[in-house]
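Handout, section B. The chain below has 93 residues.
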Amino acid sequence: MEMPHPQYKYGMLPADMQNGGVGGGIVQGDGFEPSTKGTIVYLNGGDDLSIPLSKVEDAGGKISMPKTAIGANGFMAQFIDTEGNRIALHSVN
């Protein structure tokens, strides 16, 4: 959902706060440049990150790390989005 901001384009990511969801925001503006060298944004991949990961390349992104086991913490994967940002997904399964 887009939110008013005096200088930037700012959006809130939806979350079911009543059931322990995690929300967040995303900002676009002068001085912010997409990068594969900066912060990695981790997103909840749901019950199985294979589902959202399967949509990355059709949407124009590039998978840079396939679904990878990380022991008792489940699984992770990384991709580069269409603007050049490095994004990671996590799931228990």
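Note. The first strand starts at residue 2 and ends at 3. Compare this with the example in section A.
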